[in-house]
Amino acid sequence: MPSASSAVPLFFADGSALLLADPRAWDTIPGVKKRLKRVLITAGVLLLAGFAGLNVLAYLQVRSMTHFTTGGVRTEKPEELGLGRKIKVLFTGVTLPRPTARKSPDQFGLPAPEVWRIPFGESERGLGAWYFPAAATNAALVILHHGYAAEMASLLPEAQVFRELGCAVLLVDFQGSGTSEGSATTIGYTEAEDVAAAFRYARTRLPGRTCVLFGSSMGAAAILRSIADLGVEPDGIILVAVFDSLLNTVRNRFAVMGVPSFPSAQLIVFWGGRQWGFNGFAHNPVDYARRVRCPALVMHGTDDPRARLADGRRVFDALPGRKRFIEFANAGHESYIKTSREEWTKAVAAFLAEARAPDPAP
Questions:
Q1: Class of 105-245+283-356 per CATH?
Q2: pTM metric for this prediction
């Protein structure tokens, strides 16, 4: 028999206690089993209520992250939020005003563009786009796709350099952004359909051109899915700050805010997929990359907190064709052309020359 000193007490709210050293004690104290059952039921109810609350918060987070508002001030980047703002954002979600152009072509020495309306589905207006022709009629065409919560004018600095390199340039607004219809985003999933629509329309209007797809962050993910799932066949792709999976990029946002991601990140990915009709856990650029055969240039910042360097490396490693990976030191989730214009230009120029070259014989 165990000694009294080794007994473990179980305390109840009324101050009574039960020594657990002897299992027979359960049957000797009236109401013990009933009390313990109430404790377990209460604990279970609290756990279920907490989990239900997390689901509600995750659902609301997805709504705020994928639906643009008609006004308000955009929430700061996760890494710029103070403690009070972080707590508020975790409970109320972010504010994302619908992206509109804040830059114009003339600011970058570009001529007035041809305004294109790219047919898309049942939309009457289709996708908005700017086309900048090159001097040579057979010049390579580069189609640029912007990132999350941005619009095509955000890529005017890149467009300027591509034209200086002799390329024709097509800038495209994803659905929900800029001059295109809608007010929502799916972080690259349905945007892949926009990539496919723009690519096929450009092929029709500009046949016989070498065509390279350029995508930043979400735009890069959309390009990879358009090739893997929608049959797009460009002559080359340039991927900037690409994330490897939707789950990891959501986890990264929690990490930047200094908040544990489990299970909230998983719930956000789950509800994101449910809201938009796809499996969020299968929206993985690293998987799409395995089905890409064209040459690829992958560029990534070493200090990117939202699509980490290792994430970009995983996508690069999955690409089976000709490829090159370039790191930009001390760069975050941003346009590298702003801080490393010369290095960026050399890398892109070399890649464009490779994209025009035939694949080596097996």
A1: alpha beta
A2: 0.88
